[in-house]
Amino acid sequence: MIHFNPDTRTFNLILHSSVYAMQVDSKGRLVHLAWGPRPAGENEVLSGRIRPTLSDHASFEFQTRRDELLTFGDTTTHEVTLKASFATLPDPLPDGDAPHLPIRDVRLRYVSHEIVIDAQPGLAPAHGLPTANSDPRETLRITLADPVQPLTVTLCYRLTPAQDIIERWLELANTGDTPIEIEQLFFAALHLPNGTTELTSVSGAWAQEFQTQRERLLIGRRVIEHRSLQTGHAANPFFLLNRPGQTWEELGTVYFGALAYSGSWQLSFEQLHSTDVRVHGGYHPADFALTLAAGGLHKTPALVCGVCDEGWGGASRRLHGFTRERILPMAVAGLQTVPLELHGTGGAVRTPAAADYRPILYNSWEATYFGITEQNQIELAQKAAAIGVELFCLDDGWFGGRRFDVAGLGDWIVSPDVFPNGLEPLISEVNRLGMAFGLWVEPEMVNPDSDLYRAHPEWALHFPGRPRTEARCQLILDFGREEVVEYIFNALDSLLAQYNIAFIKWDMNRNVSEPGSVVGKAIWQAHVAGVYGIMDRLRAKYPHLTIESCSGGGGRIDLGILGRTDQVWTSDNTDALDRLRIQEGFSLAYPARVMTAWVTHEKNHQTGRFHELGTRFDVAMRGALGIGASLNGLDEAELKEYANYIAFYKRIRHIVQGGDLYRLERLEEADASTILYVLPDGSEAVYSVVVHSHKMGQFRRMVPLRGLIPSATYEVLDRYQKVRLTATGYELMVQGIGGDEDGRSGYGRTLHIRSI
Ligand code: DGJ
């Protein structure tokens, strides 16, 4: 609910269990009042009579005002949300004033506000597909303007009360007749209560994404960021913030935020000497430039933020629910014909699609790498279907001159050397086996050794006359050029029109260098808009299509890309125990439903470590299960075990992919990870424990469960559907399950809990 008191000019944004308040002061400035949990059941509003105390007490400490939008001009010593440069003088200039340019000063004063239904931030998905919950939402739009300069800024707040989430973005308008240069632009500024200084975020690298880090903000500024054309491995654009010592996994007030943007980004956390804590998030200031033409508009993407009183777990569950219900597109379930003998019924069966749960994927990358042939893919597909796989994805190497990673990117034509009869024989066999077909692509890239590059060397990002740095032998296409975006759209469109492709894995395998484009510095945003635009157009045209976002593993995972994709490739590192840590960090912000997790070989290809099959499945079944092992190298008994695990996963996947996550025991604090997924109505749950490193002589403790119905009776089943325990919700939530006490390193167990 959005409440405005015209007498005190106070706004209250009232969400399920939190409130956000601001006020227009006597000078017309929009000032932040409060943000935090609110007493349960109370629908009161803040009157605005309590004003935050400010420490504007000396000539060195006078920029601490809590403006909702901090602008460069009278604020210079602290971080600002917006910096603009005007090339013209105010007219008339006050007597005695000497003209000099440019003017870099913005003062914003309240003009008006309105409450609208379902306003959209910048770069919102344009594919037209629904989300799981499409109920209308209120957006508060508060318009501020500079009294002299022709700049209007509208602050937007879209409310999702159920998850205590507010999406914040800015809309800039140049109301004059000369361009305005925007030199810095975040999507929003957040003011947090003094002392909210414990920051949880993730750092990483290729094959080591989502490493959780927790630190204490000192006075000064800390940034997390990535400067490239994708979200990046080095960090991920989300944060959790709380008062140190007052928050734990299921307890305490936590502020959280995430950017819905997949380009060069920064989250900046500033603690002033006054101990005020401010957060800015949005476009990375490095090499940033935005020209707002006369009459022009710019709408930023959203900073998604919220607060809850249920610890880090509560913050994660809110982000997960919001992503599942409000961000992920719902593909239209496709129909495909499956022969009688395979499914008993014959006729049409539904291709697993986003409308249900993520299908069980087989990806042949680690099985065959660049050694693909029609025959070995067909053999893998047959074995995959026999163990219960629902979606077969052909990875890199099927096109142009792509026999290894040195050539071919850009030439999106099926290679006759690998598939002499095109992809049709493989796809029809995959479909005949009852599976949907998926294809790997890396559309933003070009190898210099490709027909595309030979024809259009100018299409790669570069600075004229300067060297072009190759990484993995490839360059990045200039998505600032409309003709390049059209070329890529058409290439993918032809494949989708010709073949029955239900899924594409969209990869992106390098960071940027020499970002020279025909659109100049605007390439940072243009590239993201180009990628989003192609995905949106493809999804609108092929509504049954689903997409996996991949960037050398987990390099492009954020709430922007998730608006047009269905799942993400979490990491190229498929070692079960490394994955445990990666997945724990991932789970801080993103739901299990989108987290693709493969079971690969016993001897892991990345780390060389051996893990037994149970450990590999116990870890992979925590997300959207996939298989990446070479099935051609497995004997009948092993294939049977795979089939048994897959059948088990099919019985629990609605809980894993749709349930609420409780991290009962985190790697961060223990040598094991125990998690629980619980359906929102408490009727079913999945309990998963995996021991990372067990110390000799150590005894494992029992961990009490959460989220169940105390009075209900539950049975606890193993993967053979054998009942291991019958107990009440009360008992399970006070005592736990037991039986894991002597778990050794690599020990894992997944159990299905259901009320009877
Ligand atoms: C990187 C991806 O993360 C891998 O899964 C695989 O698709 C390769 N690229 C193919 O080049």
What do you see in this structure?
The chain is 18% helix and 29% strand. By secondary structure, the protein is an alpha+beta fold. It has three domains: 2-20 and 27-87 and 101-122 and 136-327, Distorted Sandwich (Beta-galactosidase, Chain A, domain 5); 389-566, TIM Barrel, CATH 3.20.20; 665-755, Sandwich (Immunoglobulin-like). Strands 6, 7, 8, 9, 11, 12, 14, 15, 19 and 20 form a ten-stranded antiparallel sheet that branches. Strands 23-24-25-28-29-30-31-32 form an eight-stranded parallel barrel, surrounded by five helices. A hairpin with a 5-residue loop joins strand 16 and strand 17. The protein binds (2R,3S,4R,5S)-2-(hydroxymethyl)piperidine-3,4,5-triol (DGJ). The site of (2R,3S,4R,5S)-2-(hydroxymethyl)piperidine-3,4,5-triol has 11 residues, from loops.
Gist of the model:
The protein has 756 residues and is an alpha+beta fold. It has three domains: 2-20 and 27-87 and 101-122 and 136-327, alpha-galactosidase from lactobacil brevis (Beta-galactosidase, Chain A, domain 5); 389-566, Aldolase class I (TIM Barrel, Alpha-Beta Barrel); 665-755, Immunoglobulin-like (Sandwich), CATH 2.60.40.1180. 18% of the residues lie in helices and 29% in strands.
